[in-house]
Each structure stands twice: as C-alpha cells, then as structure tokens.
Amino acid sequence: MEWKTDWGLRGRMAFTMFLLFALYVVFVGALTVYFGDFLFPLIMLGGFSIAQYFFSDKLALRSMGAREVSADEYPDLHRRVERLSQQADLPKPTIAVADTQVPNAFATGRNKKNATVAVTTGLLRALDDDELDGVLAHELAHVKNRDVMVMTIASFLSTIAFFIVRWGWLFSGDNRQGAPVIVAILVSIVVWVISFLLIRALSRYREYSADRGAALITGKPGALASALMTIDGRMDRVPKEDLREEAEMNAFFIIPIKAGFVGKIASTHPSTENRIERLRDLEREMETA
After folding, report:
1. The pLDDT of residue 133
2. Strand 116-120 with 105-108, pairing
3. Which residues does residue 118 pair with via DSSP β-bridges, in sequence order?
C-alpha cells in the first residue's frame, strides 16, 4: 500500500488544533486586557520555547539517559534503521540507545534532517526481528509526520499558561495590580487545563497516524500489533523507578508509562487494545487490496 493521507484522522487533528488556536486567541486577548506589558514575558517565554524546539533532541536524550551509538556498536540496529528509512523515503536519523530494562522507544528532533530514534536495551531484548522493525517504523513515521514540531507548537501557549499559574506573582508589579493578576491566574488555570486535555487528544490522534505509517513502511501491521502487546505486557514487570520517573516524556514513547501525575490525569496514547484493533483492520485491508 502507498503512503496515503488518513483524512478522517487528519480532520480530527485539524479540529483539535483549531480548538487550541481559538482557546489561545481568547487567552492572549484576556491577558492583554489586564497587562499592558505582557509582550515582554511572551517574547521571553517564546525564546525559551524556540530554544527548546532546536535543542529538543539533546534534552530528550539526556533526560532518558540515552546516548548516540555507532554502527560498530550496534550494527544490526543501524542496518534496520537505514533500510526502513529508505522505505519511508527519509534521511537516516541519528540512533541512540538507553540502557534500561523498560522496553520502549521514542523519536525526537525538529525535522527530518535533525531526527533521532532512540530505543532501550530492554526493547532490543524483548522483540523479534519483525516486531522491532514495526516499532522502528512507528518512530520513523513520527519523524515523517513532523510530530515533534507539531506538538511543540501546540504546547507553546499552554506552557505560558502554566508559568503564569505557577509564578503569577512575578507579573504583579505593585499592589494596585493584585486583582488583575488574580484574574489572569484564574484564566490561565482554565486555559492550561483545557489545553492539557486537547494536546493529549492531539497526541493520541498522532499515535494512530504513526501506527498506520509504520504498517505502510513495513507492510506488516500484525508485527507492530504483536510488538505493542509484548511491550504493554512487560511494562508492569520492570522496577517502579527507572523510566517511570520520566512520566512527562510519555508523548514520545511507543507505549506510555502508566504512572505519575500525567499517567493518572490523561493519557498521551490511545489504549493498546484500540491500537491493535486498528492495526488488525489495516492488516485485513492490505490482504484484500
């Protein structure tokens, strides 16, 4: 099957982005009413977000304890990624490995030419050849779909809302601005909560899209479905420390970590059962095509 756009999924993502945009327009308008100098913190936080965007790959790898590896260290892994990258019509990304029992993988990087695909040693031990190809193809589909860029843009003003909620007193200036600051903080709380849920819905849609992309790259939807079952079944058997402490990285993982604040409030991923069901449907579709 050729790489086709899933218009139903694309429509849901576009609608979610529209809701985020409308929410942020209201948010910026409300803050502008109360703060004549809101432009300065906006520019400051914008600069922070831009820096995060350009250095997201290094930040993600460092937070997960992953390091770049050469073809001499992991020849089979490099060969797989190179082959799958050619099938996906992508430049070969940088490859990194994290030494941990947790079987997982993630992709990061601001564009196709500056991408990194990272896997854990636990993943390499847990999966067979076809399953590993499926997971690597899923991460390459994230790269092809520019998901890191999309999620960074989507979360920009949500980050600003979070900062205002946490450090709203910094915007107070003097006592006469106390009431506007309280209003701004209340507005920011509402914006942050709503955007939190919308961004996670967007993340779930993009996981479905990456699953479909992986199936089209490898031609084996069943292999990714099998990998998801294997990974999901092992996530609860690893130590509670390890990568579970990095719950805020859930959006990057092939399977989310089911612990911590983020895991309890909202999921960045669809349920494994729903993902497998869609992959099985796609497998049947490919068999009859």
Report:
1. 97
2. antiparallel
3. 96, 106
- The amino acid occupying position 60 is A
- Domains of the chain: which residue ranges? 7-288
Residue given tokens 């913190």 in the structure block: 41
- Say which residues have a Cβ less than 8 Å from residue 222's Cβ, sequence separation at least 6: 279, 280, 283
Rounded Cα gap, residues 211 and 140, in angstroms:
10
139 part of the active site: yes
pLDDT value at position 147?
A: 85
First to last CA, the chain: 8
Where the chain has pLDDT below 70, the residues are 1-6, 9, 30-46, 48-49, 52-53, 157, 164-181, 184, 234-266, 289
* Catalytic residue of the set 139, 207, 245, 246: 139
Is pTM, for the whole model, over 0.90? no
Q: What span, in angstroms and rounded, lies between the C-alpha atoms of 273 and 233?
A: 12
Output phi, psi for 238, to 5 deg. Answer: -95, 165
Spacing of C-alpha 26 from chain mean position = 26
